[in-house]
Design brief:
It contains nine helices and eight strands. The protein is an alpha/beta fold. It has a six-stranded parallel sheet. Strands 2-3 form a two-stranded antiparallel sheet. α5 links the parallel β4 and β5. α1 packs across α3. The chain is globular.
């Protein structure tokens, strides 16, 4: 069977990694250093959100203007402060780890010809690298769409798909693009650009919820024996 060139875009938080709250704590510390409060993110859900979207909500809760160059510069500064704090939180957190099956599936896919393995994540690039580097899997992801590329998740996925297609030497229109995520927002972003969405119920959302949101398939975790064939498009 001749497979179409395939771009695989993995979400990080909740999909590849159990983060144990490291991102929230690091961002709370960055906001506390600047604004003297630790409660501004209390009611902000992080599931499927982008880093810039989370910071924008925090600034809105603080009464800051919604947009403009000055706000964008403040967001950039907060996220720059956040990255070293994130690295500290990861180093101090025992429960920060890869989900079951994550390492094996990524390593297997990275060896397949005609398959580009990348990231489709709301994390800014330095944050994504900070999370995956200590777990020993960062080198498997040669490209991605990141939260520093765009604030909207669908555009992040579109950018990641384009980079993956370029890595394969094909226009994106000739590629099969697959997004692997744990939230309905991952599914919605995939569908918005015409990509396949594969859900994994490794965090808050069940398989049934992911399927109801439009995922083509959903699995309990990345260790499911049928997952690989679905990702490669060889399942019957």
């Amino acid at each position: 069977m001749t497979l179409r060139p395939t771009v695989l875009l993995f979400d990080i938080d909740g999909t590849l990694v159990t983060t144990a709250g490291v991102g929230r704590r690091a961002l709370e510390r960055a906001l506390e250093a600047r604004y003297g409060t630790t409660t501004v993110l209390r009611d902000v859900g992080f599931d499927g959100m982008t880093d810039r979207g989370i910071v924008r909500r925090a600034l809105a809760a603080l009464g800051e203007p919604a947009g403009g160059p000055a706000v964008e510069a403040v967001m950039d500064a907060i996220l720059a402060d956040y990255v070293p704090l994130l690295e500290e939180e990861i180093a101090q957190t025992r429960d920060f780890r890869l989900h079951r099956g994550a390492r094996d599936v990524v390593e297997t896919l990275a060896m397949r010809a005609g398959v580009a393995v990348g990231l489709g994540t709301g994390n800014i690039r330095p944050g994504a690298h900070a999370k995956l580097r200590p777990l020993g899997v960062l080198h498997h992801f040669g490209f991605g769409g990141f939260g520093c590329d765009h604030e909207e998740r669908a555009e992040i996925i579109r950018i990641g798909a384009g980079r993956g297609a370029a890595a394969l030497g094909h226009p994106v229109s000739e590629c099969r693009v697959v997004v692997i995520g744990d939230t309905p927002r991952d599914v919605a972003a995939a569908r918005a650009i015409g990509a396949d969405a594969i859900g994994v119920a490794t965090a808050r959302f069940t398989r049934e919820t992911l399927l109801a949101s439009g995922a083509a398939s959903a699995f309990d975790d990345l260790a499911h024996p049928g997952l690989l064939a679905v990702l490669l498009g060889t399942s019957t």
